[in-house]
Amino acid sequence: MKVSAVILAAGLSKRMKSARPKVLHPLLGRPMIEYPLEAVKDAITEKPVIIIGHGAEEVKQAVSDRAEYALQKELLGTGDAVNAARNLLDGKTDLVLVVNADLPLLKPETIRELVDLQKDNSGPLSLLTFLGNESRGFARIVRSNAGNVVEIVEEKIATPKQLTIKEFNVGIYCFASHWLWDNLKNIKLSPIGEYYLTDLIRIAAGQNLLVKALTLTNPEEAMGINDRIHLAEAEAILRRRVNEEWMLTGVSMLDPERVYIEKSVTIGRDTMLFPDVYLRGNTSIGEGCEIGPNTIITDSKVGNCCTIQMSIMEGAIVEDEVSIGPFARLRQGAHLGKGVHMGNFGEIKNSNLGPGVKMGHFSYIGDAEIGENTNIGAGVITCNFDGVKKNKTEIGANAFIGSDTMLRAPVKIGEGAYTGAGSVVTHDVPAHAVVAGVPARPLIKKRKSAKKLK
Fold first, then answer.
1. Residues recognised as catalytic
2. Tell me: domain 3-222, CATH 2.40.30.60, correct?
3. Residue 192 · residue 77 · CB < 8 Å
4. Contact (CB, 8 A) for 327 and 344
5. Helices 108-119 and 34-41, axial angle in degrees (round to 10)
6. Which of 8, 19, 169, 322 is the most exposed, fewest CB within 10 Å of its CB?
7. Per the confidence metrics, is the pTM higher than 0.70?
8. Nearest C-alpha neighbor of 384 from the set 401, 367, 369
9. Domain with residues 228-444, CATH architecture
10. Where along the chain do its domains lie?
11. Residues 6+ apart with CB under 8 A from 375
12. In this predicted model, what pLDDT tens digit does every residue of 213-246 receive, in sequence order?
């Protein structure tokens, strides 16, 4: 049986008060429309169709070729929106699933259950409902004395008596395709100038056809986004879901309500996340780490048994047993080898620090290659920019770079070499040499041996 999905994403969403289309507002780091796309993915057999209108090109750019698109030329209601997909779907599918794009909390298993319900339904459609005390603008479900769904009344035109009904329409339907296209033309224009898809329930009941309803066990799935208050509420629910999933896999959180993990992140067991940790993008955290408090990690990879405190990482790689912070920053291209220590108020950009490197505090390392077990003293700066281009600094293994040394790139410091505190190094330094001064000059020709730093 072929199953297609129509995702309604054309609305103006005036209550968001935004130049950005509502369905592109981010939730846990992803555009809102990603959530209905994910929810329907396992229940359908065909590429989904997104109904676009306001911000059409932006929506198409965000979703790309993962969907087909139908333009709703005039925003004349949900019935008109679904009708825009007629040319793409009429005669080409057995079931049509209709989903509103502003329902990001729907779970895939709920959508699958609704589709399965309609597969067993002798009537033309099945829908989702929920019970609650707050409507949030949802239409009311009207049932007959026998308990059958016979009508859905939009809140805008409901009578005072109908407004007391506590069963609400979620706005998710599964239709028999041939019946849907045959009866869309029978929807009448409402008093406010819109064609409501919900009229199809009244039409089906008038034809003595069965409309089945699946009532949500968790009403939060039905939560729609109409304004930024709703957006924040949905964000909190999604964050709670993600955090609970990670805790059940062996990740600890002192205060889950203050931990922010995007869905694309992976975390190893026995890792501890302290309050005010933000893990974003394509980030992976290894096992046995301690992250935070007050740490932001974006698109980065962290190995096992690392400690990162009050620091920021973006596009960086950190191998096992590394300690960072507090108040450190790793920028794009930073790579810290096993056992590296990076102290407070340091910054690394586009540089590789070999295993065992110790980088103290108040230092900047940019566009550099640093050998294993080298010591970077406090206040060391790689002067990588000459006003035109970035230049590289190379430091060999077991070197000792004294406090407040400035390394004017391009420059090479040999294995086991020393620089004195406050030196300005403008020329290459041979292996095991000791230099100092402004500019730095050799103090003795060569050290007899290089001692491994502890």
1. 361
2. no
3. no
4. yes
5. 50
6. 19
7. yes
8. 367
9. 3 Solenoid (2.160)
10. 3-222, 228-444
11. 357, 358, 360, 399, 400, 401, 453
12. 999 999 999 998 999 999 999 999 999 999 999 9
